[in-house]
Write a structure and sequence with these properties.
Layout (H helix, E strand, L loop, with lengths): L8 H46 L3 E5 L5 E4 L1 H6 L4 H4 L21 E4 L4 E5 L6 E7 L5 E13 L2 E10 L1 H59 L5 H28 L2 H5 L2 H16 L2 E6 L8 H22 L3 E8 L3 E8 L15 H12 L3 E6 L3 E8 L5
Parallel strand pairs: 8-9
Antiparallel strand pairs: 1-2, 1-7, 3-4, 4-5, 5-6, 6-7, 9-10, 10-12, 11-12
Organism: Rugamonas brunnea
GO molecular function, one term: protein dimerization activity
Pfam family, one: PAS_9
């Protein structure tokens, strides 16, 4: 029987099919890592859009021409409009340019190539304060943060905004209450000083005169012949007691209202207080001031005297100092007061303690005259005060 030869084509076709199947599987495996980033990017993009759409804060994105390219429902609700009405509109329609361009010097920040400037607010460099405009025409305060990124070759700027109307209202109420409290404090200081002056005058003019008259009578009585030695000693003892009472009365009246302030002016009153401070506490104290520069009205002079008096009282009680320097000079319509001691200094936490009535009183007196006060501790306590001079000065 003759042998027949089989055709090679079926085998070749079978091998080619197997090769193509293997190549397709290999291509799918090679293409899978390439498709994975695209799938992840698409998932991330959908997730980001979902986050933006459901965010409670208002989010607006614009291009360099300040055209809104994205707005979420929270932004539309904040401005009293719809997302469709916002997207494609100008940012000027919702955040007017004149409400953004505020001359804050180096704090100006630019939003986009058009140079829209937003006023920085707060401690973070990304926080800004602007004024928004609702669809109804109502202006309201906003606070937000800005970020920029490049997308498809163009710059996109995104603002996250928060309506701070309630916070502003609370701040205004707090500021109003604070102003009223400061005015009340100033009024109480004035009333207290008037009462002090009245009591000091009554003590000096009435009680002081009575004691002086009584001592004169006692002096006349001492000139008469005494009945015995015991009577002479009793009269001498009464004279010592009267003299001590008169001295105490003058000291109390001077603490209430120094007569030197009324009779000699501020410089003389400060120098008298300095001398008394040295004599009473044994702490060296120098006064660096010019008498002609310290001629002021009664209220201004009294405030300065009380500030220096309170500072010296605190030094005597707490500083453990051996030397104090008082400096008072005029500079550019301002009175500069510097009080220095070489004591142990004051702790930072003690400066704002509720029980630090001396420091609180000093601050209130300075602030009542629209001045500034700084208290630092550096090799002792340093008190620097700057007070605007009164108009008549």
């Amino acid at each position: 029987m003759p042998l027949t030869r089989k055709s090679p084509w079926p085998l070749a076709l079978s091998a080619l099919a197997a090769f193509l199947l293997l190549g397709a599987r290999l291509a799918r495996r090679l293409a899978a890592p390439l498709r994975q980033p695209r799938r992840l990017a698409a998932v991330a993009g959908n997730r980001s859009r979902s986050i933006i759409q459901h965010a409670s804060d208002a989010i607006i994105s614009t291009d360099d021409d300040q055209t809104i390219v994205l707005a979420n429902p929270s932004a539309a609700a904040m401005f009293g409009t719809t997302v469709q009405a916002m997207e494609g509109a100008s940012l000027q329609q919702f955040i007017p340019r004149e409400q953004r361009a505020l001359p804050d010097g180096p704090q100006l920040q630019y939003f986009g190539a058009t140079g829209i400037r937003l006023r920085m607010k707060g401690r973070r460099a990304s926080d800004y304060a602007v004024t928004g405009l609702k669809a109804s025409g109502q202006l309201f305060p906003l606070e937000g943060s800005i970020s920029s990124l490049t997308e498809d070759g163009r710059q996109i700027h995104t603002i996250i905004l928060r309506d701070v109307t309630e916070r502003k209202q609370v701040q205004q109420k707090l500021e109003q209450s604070y102003t009223q409290l400061r005015e009340l404090s100033a009024a109480l200081q004035t009333i207290r000083e008037e009462e002090r002056t009245h009591i000091a005058r009554e003590l000096h003019d009435d009680l002081g005169q009575l004691l002086a008259t009584l001592r004169m009578d006692l002096t006349l009585l001492q000139q008469q012949p005494a009945a015995n030695d015991a009577a002479s000693k009793l009269l001498a003892s009464m004279d010592d007691v009267l003299l001590s009472a008169i001295t105490s009365l003058r000291r109390i009246a001077s603490n209430l209202r120094p007569r030197a302030l009324d009779e000699g002016g501020l410089f003389f009153a400060l120098d008298s207080m300095r001398q008394d401070f040295v004599a009473r506490h044994g702490i060296a104290c120098t006064l660096d001031a010019c008498e002609e520069e310290l001629v002021f009205d009664d209220n201004y002079s009294t405030a300065i005297f009380r500030i220096v008096q309170e500072a010296l009282t605190n030094i005597a009680r707490h500083a453990q100092a051996s030397e104090v320097t008082l400096q008072l000079h005029r500079r550019d319509r301002t009175l500069r007061i510097a009080i220095r001691d070489d004591g142990r200094g004051i702790a930072e936490q003690d400066m704002d303690k509720a029980s630090s009535f001396g420091l609180i009183g000093m601050r209130e007196r300075v602030w009542a005259i629209h001045g500034d006060i700084a208290i630092t501790s550096n090799g002792g306590t340093h008190i620097d005060i700057s007070m605007p001079l009164p108009a008549e000065a």
